[in-house]
Amino acid sequence: GLAGGPILCDADADGALETVALDRGGRLDVLGEDGVPEFRWPKLLWSEDYVDPPEQECGPRALDVTGDGVPEILVNRADGFLLALDGRGEDVPGWPLSLGMPGRAGPEYLPGGGGFAPRLALANTYWQDLQGQDQTAFSVVRTLARGDSTGSFAVAGVDAGRSRVYPKVRLPGPAPAPAE
After folding, report:
1. CB 3.0-4.6 Å disulfide test: which of 19, 102, 118, 166 passes with 31?
2. Distance CA 144, CA 34 (A)
3. Exposed e or buried b for every residue in 49-76, given b needs 16+ CB within 10 A?
4. Average pLDDT of the residues of the chain
5. What contacts 3, CB < 8 A, 6 or more positions away?
6. 96-149: per-residue pLDDT in tens?
7. Is the distance from CB of 57 to CB of 36 less than 8 angstroms?
8. CA dist., res. 116 & res. 103, Å (int)
C-alpha cells in the first residue's frame, strides 16, 4: 500500500507535472503524464545494506527548499531522517536532516511572516509510555522552503488544480425501451 497519498509536482522542471507516490516499503515512484516512470526512477529510500527497514508512514511532499524555483521531493522517512531529493532522485546539498526518531506525519509547510522564516512541521515518535503506547512529539524546522513555486504540493490532501482524478464519462443507465 501507499504511504500517504500521491502528489503532483514538476520535480524535473520540464513544465509537466509528474505523479509522485511512495509505498510503505520505501519505494518512491515518479511517473510522467503517460504513467511511465521518469528517467532514474523509481528509487528505494533505503540502502541495500538496510536489512529490515521500518514501514514508511509519511507520504511525499514537494517544496522548493533550494530557492531555485523548482520543487524538491521531501519525505519524513520512517527512521527519523527528513529527505530532500531533486528531480533526479539525488540528495539536495545539506540534506537529509536527522530528526532522531521515526517519522509519523509531515512535513507540512508553515509560511513565514511577521519577521519569521518559513518552517516545516513534523511529527515523530519519541518514546513509549508505561502502557507501551507511542508518544509523538511535534517538531518545527526552520527552512528556506517556498510553498508557492510552480508545482509545489506543500500540504496533504488534494484540490481540483492538483488532482490526477479524472471523471469518467457516465453512460446512460438502463431505461425503458420506447413503446411502439
Report:
1. 19
2. 32
3. eeeeeeebbbbbbbbbbbeeebbbbbbb
4. 76
5. 22, 23, 24, 55, 56, 57, 58, 59
6. 888 777 777 778 877 777 777 777 877 777 666 778 776 777 777 766 665 555
7. no
8. 25
